[in-house]
Automatic annotation (TrEMBL):
PANTHER family in UniProt: CHORISMATE MUTASE, CHORISMATE MUTASE AROH
Alphabetized CDD domains for the sequence: AroH (cd02185), CMPK (cd02020)
Descriptive protein name: Cytidylate kinase
Primary site of residence: cytoplasm
Listed NCBIfam families: CM_mono_aroH, cmk
One example of a Gene Ontology biological process annotation: chorismate metabolic process
Entries under InterPro entries matching the protein: Chorismate_mutase_AroH (IPR008243), Cytidylate_kin (IPR003136), Cytidylate_kinase_dom (IPR011994), P-loop_NTPase (IPR027417), RutC-like_sf (IPR035959)
UniProt subcellular location: Cytoplasm
GO molecular function: ATP binding; chorismate mutase activity; dCMP kinase activity
Length: 335
């Protein structure tokens, strides 16, 4: 008999939140460990003293785990304990290797696996990196660092300074003294350029294309990568870009490469731009996507490339939620 441990945290003490989080935790344990119902002997759950709305065992029964013995206990109110936390110990007769599951910040309970973790998410324009990165960050309770936003801000700085992006010396003078900071407020990344929040202003087709040119300069990339590595060394986060797994964090244990056909990516970008009031046609958007791909793949410095040890996910026929779930499942398998 083997014991599989796990834990999760709630965002609030409500019956529905208990049901959702307990079901998610147990389902993830079963899926990650490839368990059959008849292999589960008993599920023992405990909850911190601040959870009073519903017994976790009742939530487990409602989630379809009534075929085995269920037990709930209330933990004492201990100073410094993780708030709104549900823990589980599942006893099984499975011969598979045990994989423990810790979700939504509960990972800190495992001191052996609680060091800073980084996730690399690479892929071409329109593959869904930014959206998926935010969803994964929410699911794992870590930060999402949009590295592309940093290059976009550098491009905006060049435009405002009147620099010719084709002139290396002009770009270098502008970037040398750039005041670029990344902050997180209410779970959202803010890109601050010279103290101004430019998070929305950098999301245009013009900025996107110029960012590709500007990022090709070694001194620009070096400055951005230095900042990205500093952030990644201090806090668990997922970084999305085009060379995270190959250049920024080559030693990252969790690498993913998202892809999709140019037509699918152009359609996504076209819908995004149209929602913002852009007047580009789909044909022009597709042309821009193909040109951006060529620039990113053929640039001399840190070109767009799938890391050899990255997990490739074709997002063409998947929703962002489905992709995020696939990423989280693969990460959980490695923990």
């Amino acid at each position: 008999m083997k014991a599989i441990r796990g834990a999760t945290t709630l965002s609030a003490d409500t019956p529905e939140e208990v049901r959702v989080k307990v079901k998610e935790l147990l389902s993830q344990i079963v899926k990650t460990n490839e368990l059959r119902p008849d292999e589960i002997i008993c599920i023992m759950l405990s909850s911190t003293a601040d959870i009073r709305s519903l017994y976790p065992a009742k939530a487990a029964r409602e989630a379809g785990f009534a075929h085995c013995a269920l037990y709930s206990s209330l933990e004492p109110d201990m100073q410094g304990s993780l708030p709104l936390c549900v823990r589980v110990m599942l006893l099984t007769e499975s011969d598979n290797a045990v994989k423990h599951v810790y979700l939504h910040g509960a990972r800190v309970l495992r001191k052996d696996i609680s060091s800073v973790i980084n996730i690399a998410l690479d892929g071409p324009a329109g593959s869904g990196k930014s959206t998926v990165s935010k969803l994964v960050a929410q699911k794992l309770d870590i930060l999402s660092l949009d590295t592309g936003a940093m290059y976009r801000a550098a491009a905006l700085k060049c435009i405002r300074a009147g620099a010719d992006y084709a002139e290396k010396n002009q770009v270098e003078r502008v970037i040398e003294n750039i005041d670029l900071r990344v902050e997180y407020r209410d779970g959202r990344q803010l890109t601050l350029l010279d103290g101004e929040d430019v998070s929305d202003k950098i999301r245009t087709a013009q900025i996107s294309m110029l960012a590709s040119y500007v990022s090709a300069y070694p001194f620009v990339r070096n400055k951005m990568v230095q900042l990205q590595r500093k952030i990644a060394s201090e806090v668990s986060c997922i970084l999305d870009g085009r060379d995270i797994g190959t250049n920024v964090l080559p030693g990252c244990p969790y690498k993913f490469y998202l892809t999709a056909s140019p037509e699918v990516r152009a359609c996504r970008r076209f819908e995004e731009d149209r929602a913002k009031g852009a007047k580009l046609t789909f044909e022009q958007t597709l042309k821009d996507i193909n040109e951006r791909d060529a620039q990113d793949k053929n640039r001399a410095v840190a070109p767009l490339k799938c890391a050899e040890d990255a997990i490739v996910i074709d997002t063409s026929d998947m929703t962002a939620e489905e992709v995020a779930n696939a990423v989280c499942e693969k990460i959980q398998e490695k923990i």
